[in-house]
Design a protein that fits this description.
Number of strands: 7
Number of helices: 8
Shape: globular
Order of helices and strands: EHEHEEHEHEHHEHH
Oligomer: single chain
Length: 193
C-alpha cells in the first residue's frame, strides 16, 4: 500500500516527535508499505523517510521544483516527482496514495489534512485517513471537531471518517483492515433533500 504522510518540516521540534515518526516509517516499510510524501529532508517528513529507508521500503517524494535548495529535499528517495505548483503537488500525492496519515505539523499540514478530509466527506475518494496523535498534539483539534458536531456544524458521520491513534501499530492495523464505507455525501454534510 502507498501511504501518504503529511507532517512538519521544522527541524526545531522536540526530538520525541522525530523518533516516533521514524519508528512509524520503519514499521510501514517492515509491513510492506511505501511512503508518499512532500519530499522534505527535515522535521517529521524527513523522519518518516529515514524510517522507511531504514526498514528497506520505497519512498516517493513529491515537491515543487522551486524547493530544489541545498538540504531541503530528501536525497534518498526511491522516486522523486517534481511539480510546478503546491496544488499540483497535493494532487499527485493524493493520486499516488491508498491512505493518508496526518502527523503533527503547522499550517501546511493543517491545509493538507482538511483538504483530504473534505474531499472524503464530499465523496471524492474512499481512502482511509487517520491522525497520528503523537504526544497528544491533536487533542485540541479532536475537541474542536467534536464541538463542531455538538453545535451541529458537522455530522457525527463526517467526524467519524477520521480516527485518531496514539500508536503506529494501531494506526497501520487500521489501514490494513480498512474497508471503505459507502457514505452519502448529503448525509455527511447535513444537507436536507
Amino acid at each position: 500500500m502507498n501511504i501518504c504522510l503529511y507532517g512538519a518540516s521544522s527541524a526545531e521540534i522536540d526530538n520525541s516527535y522525530i523518533l516516533c515518526t521514524e519508528d512509524l516509517g520503519k514499521k510501514m516499510a517492515l509491513r510492506g508499505h511505501s511512503l508518499v510524501y512532500g519530499g522534505g529532508a527535515s522535521g517529521l517528513m524527513g523522519a518518516a523517510a529515514r524510517g522507511v529507508v531504514a526498514g528497506g521500503g520505497k519512498v516517493i517524494g513529491v515537491a515543487p521544483s522551486f524547493f530544489q535548495v541545498d538540504g531541503v529535499l530528501f536525497e534518498d528517495c526511491t522516486e522523486f516527482v517534481y511539480t510546478e505548483t503546491m496544488r499540483e503537488r497535493k494532487q499527485i500525492m493524493e493520486q499516488r496514495s491508498d491512505a493518508f496519515i496526518v502527523t503533527p505539523g503547522g499550517i501546511g499540514t493543517f491545509d493538507e489534512f482538511f483538504e483530504i478530509f473534505s474531499l472524503k466527506q464530499l465523496g471524492q475518494h474512499e481512502k482511509a485517513v487517520a491522525i497520528f496523535n503523537i504526544n497528544g498534539y491533536f487533542n485540541s483539534m479532536r475537541d474542536m471537531l467534536d464541538f463542531a458536531v455538538k453545535e451541529k456544524f458537522m455530522s457525527k458521520e463526517s467526524r467519524d471518517l477520521v480516527p485518531f491513534f496514539d500508536t503506529a501499530d494501531e494506526l497501520l492495523s487500521y489501514f490494513e483492515s480498512y474497508k471503505p464505507d459507502k457514505c452519502d455525501p448529503a448525509v455527511l454534510r447535513k444537507i436536507k433533500r
